[in-house]
Design a protein that fits this description.
Helices cover 49% and strands 0% of the residues. By secondary structure, it is mainly α. The longest helix has 20 residues, at 141-160.
Length: 194
């Protein structure tokens, strides 16, 4: 009599929110590869391809970020990419929304350095030019330009990951982008803060 080995484990369902995940039924080693080799790279690429077609990819990525998952491909991102993703989120959304609203209403405020990228990004989405941001925040033009460039780089990374990089406030008001997908041009019919 021959005793067969049980089938290899498959990616488990974490909870009912993950029932529609594209990874269910695939080998866990695909999403949690070990070592650094050409096979490891192929495994990562295949996992990302599977994640790319998943209907709950964003929820999966949110789970990994919220729970500080240190290993594996979650939502199509590796651990290193998720660290960059968290930095991008801090860059774009680190400032308190109330601070941005106060600036939009005409107050002149000193912006803490750790919030400058987020403030510049959100004000640019509202159609503010660099000169106006400099006046409202008392930040020199070169620093505002660098902050905007860093924020744009973060937004490009989020966009490539399939995440909408618009500030929360503009998602409600309907502000848009220019043809290149960059901030600044209001959506047709939306109200731009002057």
């Amino acid at each position: 009599m021959t005793v067969s080995r049980p089938p290899r484990d498959r990616v488990p369902v974490l909870d009912s929110a993950f029932l529609g995940a594209a990874c269910i039924g695939h080998e866990p080693e695909l999403f949690f590869p070990r070592g650094e080799s050409e096979r490891w790279e192929q495994s990562i690429e295949k996992a990302k391809h599977i994640c790319g077609g998943c209907t709950i990819r964003v929820d999966c990525l949110r789970h990994a970020v919220d729970n500080s998952e240190a290993d594996g491909v979650w939502g199509g991102l590796t651990p290193a990419e998720r660290r960059r993703f968290r930095r991008a989120l801090r860059t774009l959304y680190g400032a308190d929304d109330a601070l941005v609203r106060r600036l939009l209403t005409g107050e002149r405020l000193l912006v803490p350095p750790e919030h400058l990228g987020s403030v510049v990004w959100q004000l640019a989405w509202h159609g503010w030019r660099i000169e106006r941001i400099c006046l409202a925040t008392a930040v020199p033009r070169p620093r505002v330009r660098r902050s905007l460039a860093a924020a744009q780089s973060s937004a490009d990374f989020l966009r490539a990951a399939g995440i909408d990089p618009r500030p929360r406030s503009t998602r409600v008001t309907g502000s848009g982008t220019d043809r290149a997908g960059r901030p600044g041009a209001p959506a047709p019919g939306s109200r731009q803060v002057a």
